[in-house]
Amino acid sequence: MTLVMRRLERLIGFVLLVGVLLSAATVLLGGVLFLWRHGSTPVHYRIFRGEPSDLRTLLGVWGDVMKGSGRGIIQVGLILLVAVQLVRVLLTGILFLLSRDKTFVVITTVVLGLLTYALFYAGR
Amino acid sequence: MVNTIFGLCLLVGSLFAGLIGSLTGLGGGVLLVPMLVLLFHVSVRYAVGTSLISVIATSSGAASAYLTEGYTNLRIGMFLQMAATAGAIVGAIIAGLLHGTTIAIIFGLVLLYSSYLSLRRKEEAESPRPSARLAKQLRLEGSYPTAGGWKGYRVYNVSGGFSLMLAAGTLSGLLGIGSGAVKVLAMDQLMRLPYKVSTTTSNFMIGITAAASAGIYLHAGFIDPGLTMPVMLGVLGGAFIGAKLLMRVPTKPLRIFFSLVIFVMAVEMIYSGLTGRL
Fold it and tell me: Which domain holds residue A105?
């Protein structure tokens, strides 16, 4: 393995670490806000009702954040965590691209395509 | 119970689940869902959603540590990831169609099987045969650090591993787990990779597989921020501690103990599901 690839592998590890920490910090911030306001509200997770529609889509979550909602901010942190996975695949793809490995560039593109499809899958 | 107290209890429980999950290379999900459902009486679908997000966090946290150590085989990981991701999409869509009780029973059965798998596992002698043809064409062979320097390894049964990975992905999306047990089975037993290479490569894949299901879960309303917040933070903390300890802890006794715990939880999940107590 060349030095460049070894470095890129370390970069993927670094990006993962930063992404996870950033996501956790966002979740923590939202969590503090949420507990500050709703800390003494009884929990209600026994029966599945499904989340309200604003917490199910990117646009809806963003609208909640603009209103300063703790739950909205937590959701942004969670979406960030998912987005980091997309970046991880992308960086691995670049690693294969740099080593002129056509087969693996195609393989990574397939994974990236499936992942993008899933993230924007709207449900029926 | 109110949100603050509930959150604190969840944080502690999840820290423990994350630590064990990371040390055994099986991820936190197999412990999290039974903990949430049996101990905290959370609805199965919320539990599955929460667990899935935490699994992404665990995988990312641990993978960032493993990648710098040189165990992870990115080529094998990405190749098998095609099957795992496709499976994850199918699994998550099925999860949206099934009743919570059905998911709980399937979960219990998968747990039983994983506990059997980790108990049955035996160290096999190195095979003198050359690698599979497909493994050579895709240049999947690699090397990993041992006490005596870098050691090369061969790769067998690529198509078998690929098929099993499709099943692992489907289970991951259906049950909100990383399916580490099945992923490790595919690499360790079928493809005959060294154990540490199997667990770290499985860990690398788990986050990406789970991310595919997460998008679908989000739209289905499975992911509750108030519930996921303490669990994700706790599991992440546990995973970081686990990654630091991994090289110093003997994995075998841990795996045996963990399998017994899984076995008990599996029986409880199936029983609760069948008697309609969930």
Answer: 3-39+49-119
| Dist CA B106 CA B119 (whole Å) | 20
What pLDDT sits at residue A124?
A: 44
Question: Residue B69 phi/psi, 5° resolution?
Answer: -95, -10
Q: What is the pLDDT of residue B124?
A: 62
Query: Cβ–Cβ contacts within 10 Å for residue B252, how many?
Result: 12
- Given a cut of 90, is residue A47 above it in pLDDT? no
The predicted complex's ipTM stands at 0.90
A44: in domain: no
Backbone φ and ψ of A42, nearest 5°: -60, 150
Contact yes or no for B212/B89 (Cβ under 8 A): yes
pLDDT tens-digit series, residues A76-104: 999 999 999 999 999 999 999 998 999 99
> Tell me, what's the pLDDT at A48?
87
B48-65 pLDDT tens trace:
999 999 999 888 877 777
Give me B45's structure tokens.
């679908």
Q: In chain A, which among 49-88 make CB contacts under 8 A with chain B?
A: 49-52, 55-57, 70-72, 74-75, 78-79, 81-82, 84-86, 88
Q: Which of A5, A43, A112 to mutate to test the interface with B (most CBs of B within 10 A)?
A: A43
Number of separate domains in chain A? 1
Cβ contacts of B198 within 8 Å, gap of 6 or more: B25, B183, B184, B187, B188
Residues of A in contact with B234 (CB under 8 A): none
Is A102 among the domain residues?
A: yes
B79 vs B81: CA distance, rounded Å: 5
Q: Does residue B123 or residue A14 have the better pLDDT? A: A14
Does residue A54 sit within a domain?
A: yes
Q: What value does the mean pLDDT of chain B take?
A: 88
